[in-house]
UniProtKB/TrEMBL annotation:
Pfam families: Transferase. The keyword Protein biosynthesis does not apply. InterPro entries: CAT-like_dom_sf (IPR023213), Sec_Metabolite_Acyltrans (IPR051283). This is HXXXD-type acyl-transferase-like protein. It comes from Rhynchospora pubera. GO terms for molecular function: transferase activity. Keywords: Transferase.
Amino acid sequence: MPSRTFPPVRIIKTYTVTPRPNPEVPRQLHLSAWDVGMLSTLYIQRGLLFTYPPDLSAQQIIERLRSSLEEALFHFYILSGRLRVVSCEGGGVTCHVEVECEGDGAEFVHAVADEIGVTDVVTMGGQDLPKFLKEFFPLDLAHAVNFDGCTKPLLTVQFTELIGGIFIGCTFNHVIGDGTSFWHFFDAWAEITRCKAARNEVILSQPPVHDRWFIGGYGEPPIKLPYSSPAEFVVRPSTLLLREKMFHFSSESLAKLKERANQEYRKGIISTFQALSALMWRSITRARCCPPDQKTSCQLIIQNRARLQPPLSPNYFGNSICLISTSTTARELLDNNLGWSSWLAHQIVSNHTDSAIRDQTHKYMKDPFVYNGNMFDKHSILMVGSPWFNMYGCDFGWGKPLAARCSIGNKFDGKISAYPGWEGGGSVDLEVCLLPEYMSALERDEEFLAVVSPPIDLEVLLGTSNKDV
């Protein structure tokens, strides 16, 4: 059955939101090694779906969100700045990028989707994610790389009116922060909105820490990149025809998966997420029909904050992530059991210690470079996001979100984004991006299907979205 075609989302008005100056944030902010490497990846684009707030008009919602965004930008002042590239004079072969925090402002977009309703966004019954989701985010930033933050806002928010609901989409420059920082900002913005609606003083429960972490031994920042101009490191992503689908895993199903992995490898210390990562690695490798001797990897984006010694603040606002990876051949991966591949995932996580982080950072500082999406191995998978992000705790004063969704940015074959399950309790949602033929094979994979759970019933979502859950 062909998917329904919807008319384009209409942009009503775009506002510039400028905060008052924050004297505690420096006007020039140097980027860390974790930040600089993100210059040629795409902006983070995530958003939340809500039922329509009762007793509020669209204009009242907009006024609340704009006013609270202005206050949020005061606290997260770096998001109102712009990137600036500085090239060495006299024919030098290095350049560096910094953030100018001069309060240029963020953008707030008001849009209307005339024929799209809540039920169209929350796809059920095994449907692919709808193509119109990309229109819930500013389209001029859909394919923007982070370096474009030299001329474009570092943060743009789009408020889209739907039939029976609203969607708040946030486009966030990845040089400024990682997923933890993204949801830290989103949650703080919601907290401020609630405070201002109740006419309470705004005191953030988790104020951001803007000081960047630098490893010693390389002089004072900035970090100099071995390029004479941005043209040498800015790589625009190629567009692939992908299928994108959300799969739900209940806490009960995941508990059985974890138990199975630990029984098979007789270790007892494999985590739920390590077992789930191994399941996806095995299932997708099988779906791809890789040759037996083909090398394949399971790659994870992992947090550094709590692993450093001394640890960084959980409110560290910036990038603090590393890519870790384990590899084997397709034959070894599939001939061995789930416990074996789960143990491979467990080892790279447990080995990611303070020493490993510092070694990886030293290696980068000796030969700095900029990542781009074309570096990904097409025979591997990449697990990003986290089921521990507080997505469903982002309460703007009108109840729990119905769903979390993202746009088209940073999508490629083999990318898997983790979300907390709506019902909590350790449940997980995975957004899987694959080439069409691989997705069709995954949908028939017996090991995978034995673990996937039915999605949450839409009536349950709609019946509890405006209540405390």
